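Incident log, structure service

09:12 report received: a user says their structure output differs between two submissions of the same chain.
09:20 pulled the input from the user's history:
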Amino acid sequence: MGLWQRLFGSRIEAIVVDEAGHRRTKKLSPERIERLREAGYGVVRLDRVPVHMLDAVQGPSQTEWEVGKDVTRKVVERHADPETGALYAVRLYEGLEPRETKITSRAKWQELHESMG
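09:34 re-ran on a clean worker, output below:
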């Protein structure tokens, strides 16, 4: 990576969570985000977020939501798992029609996933 790219390259707003649980918002390059994750920091991107979805009809899946379009920044800041940088969601149905999608914790999502078989 050249000096020009380092100085003026694309930056992504993200929340960085250290070992003590302190959260700071910073603008980082994609490469820096990966290095921080490898070093053990939790990093939650604020431009797009991976989503692990549990759906009783279609089964578990993974997708990506755009922050500000598919999900609010406030939801991402509050509920994204700092270890994975992902949201965990459950789609609820009324009959065979999707009613709503709820955000849950990673532990609760895993518990529901295991109970689905």
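09:41 both user submissions now match this output. Likely a transient worker issue. Closing.
09:42 reviewer note: The chain has a mean pLDDT of 90. The first strand starts at residue 12 and ends at 17.
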